[in-house]
Amino acid sequence: MECAIITTYRCNARCGMCDIWKNPSKASEEFKPEILEKIPAGMQRLNITGGEALLRKDIAEIVRILDKKTKRLEISTNGYYFDRIEAIAKEFPDITIRVSVEGLPALNDRLRGIQNGFDHAMRTVLRLKELGIKDIGFAMTISGENCYDLLELYTLVASMDIEFANAVVHNSFYFHKLNNEIKNKKEIERIMLKFMERLLNSPRKNIKKKIKDWFRAYLNLGLLKHVQGEERPIPCGAGTDTFFLDPWGRVLACNGSVKPMIMGDLKTQTFVDIWRGEQATRVRDQVKNCKQNCWMTGTAVPAMRKNPWEPIKWVLRNKFQIAQGKPLRI
Asked: Beta 250-252 vs 262-265: how paired, if at all?
């Protein structure tokens, strides 16, 4: 399984597509790190996120506990607190870091509402590279406003030999938004298709990262389908293959639903009791009937891993299409 730990809803950013910062959790109400001991070991991946996770004063303790639970521990951050991130990376050199940006410097700082935000994000990545941290990269939430920076940002990350995670704007309880809307759909579709072709023609020299780009193209297929209002390319496994923990210690199926689908409370229950409980069964039935068709990394990547042949067939078919000079078959 995979899990995302939403450590806090406090955030120093002021993003237009996310209103977490308008609805912060109180530090005094957020879960104590020791409840994380209840999360089972052997997790495929654990993602520490927020809000801005680095606002937690006990973030180092959270990392120490979760590092024992998985071979791949990831922190999602906007990179503003680069000194804090650097300190964690020195203690945990195998950690994965994704730094969120919304485009190149001027656009990023405007959309995220952080003065010198791109500067801090870039400084974080450069310091991590100097430390020798291997799995680092930028993450971008594609919208109608920033899609024009997508191709140039990919050129930058490919030249820096770092990763590039992608999402598109969504509406859900997690973002405290139900009115996100992409008005220039034709333009964003054109750019995303071109981006997918770039990924399938990855310029990277590292073969592992080149292949990851090919499958990142498939991930972007799901994002494109979400923009177009179509169904997910692979069914959702929220609440079965993945779960989320919110700042109050509640176990949720996902972060893409209109309202939280609460499976239990880790403060008062064991994980096994939650996972095998009647409430969890009811939530899984809700997931089966969910019409959100969200496609976010937390649920999309596990779905791809569970159903690998669909992405593999799509990648091979479209690599062949491109080799013949033909457009993608989506």
From this structure: antiparallel
Alpha carbon dihedral 6, 10, 14, 18, in 10-degree steps, equals: 40
% the chain with pLDDT above 70: 100
Do the beta carbons of residue 91 and residue 130 sit within 8 Å?
no
Between helix 207-227 and helix 309-323 the angle, nearest 10°, is 100
CB 31 within 8 A of CB 251: no
- pTM reported for the whole predicted model: 0.95
Antiparallel, parallel or unpaired: β 242-245 and 250-252 = antiparallel
d(CA 242, CA 252): 9
SS3 95: coil
CB atoms within 10 A of CB 100: 22
The closest alpha carbon to 166, from 175, 157, 178, belongs to 157
The residue written with tokens 């939650």 in the block is 274
pLDDT in tens, 48-58: 999 999 999 99
For residue 302, how far is the Cα from the chain centroid? 12
| CB of 291 closer than 8 Å to CB of 171 | no
Number of helices (H) and strands (E) in the chain: give both, helices first: 11, 9
Q: How far apart are CA 82 and CA 15, in angstroms?
A: 19
- In 3-state terms the chain splits into helix, strand, coil percentages (rounded to 5) of 45, 15, 40
